[in-house]
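Input chain follows. Return structure tokens only.
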Amino acid sequence: MRARGFTLIELVVVLLVLGLGVALALPSVGRSAEALRARAEVAAVTAFLRQAREQAVVRRQTHEVRTDAEGRVLLLLPGADGSGPRAGARAAGASDGRAARRLADGVRLVNERGLPPAVRFSAEGSAQGSLAWRLEGPGRRAALIAVDPLTGRVHSRPGDV
């Protein structure tokens, strides 16, 4: 009578097949996670720009969004054209509306000329300055972020590498 169970060779073959399947699937999972992080960063930058436009309209003063020299930190500067309230007119402890957002590691923003971008939103909602931005991320991923000059609306789409 033969004993029930699997032989050692059968177990090794099954483990090899499973290992091969995992080895083939793992790189695609890594690329998917990287693509998800890139999309999240694009969404965060467009939301930051939309917030700047909204604040310009609500506060009825010009707001400027620019990056640092490396294109790694977004800065929101209200009253960039001197249209903001005078320092003495602001209530004590009131926020001046400045904001900053650091981009994820390996991500940077450049304008169409390869320089750090800056865009200014007017109190009416229109925009001027660098209206086409390129977000470059790890793994040669890129996205284009555009600001409509007339309406100030922000749009994004995957870009060419």
